[in-house]
Write a structure and sequence with these properties.
This is DUF2934 domain-containing protein. By secondary structure, the chain is mainly α. It has 3 helices and no strands.
Length: about 70
């Protein structure tokens, strides 16, 4: 599930990009939701092959630098 604030931000950006048309709030909300969910699914597929050891290494590396 995508965070509602992320959907709102994406929908607003899409709406602005299209010159702020009136009466299209639902269209942009669902478009943003669809785009974000598609991106999340793609990300999960790309990460599915990563082993647990690699995940731990990535997390430890991020913790050391962040």
């Amino acid at each position: 599930m995508i965070d509602e604030s992320k959907i709102r931000e994406r929908a607003y950006a899409l709406w602005e990009k299209d010159a702020c048309p009136d009466g299209a709030d639902c269209f942009y909300w669902y478009l943003a939701q669809d785009q974000l969910e598609s991106a999340l699914q793609l990300s999960r597929r790309e990460c599915a092959h990563v082993t647990n050891e690699e995940k731990v290494s990535l997390v430890n590396g991020a913790a050391a630098t962040g």
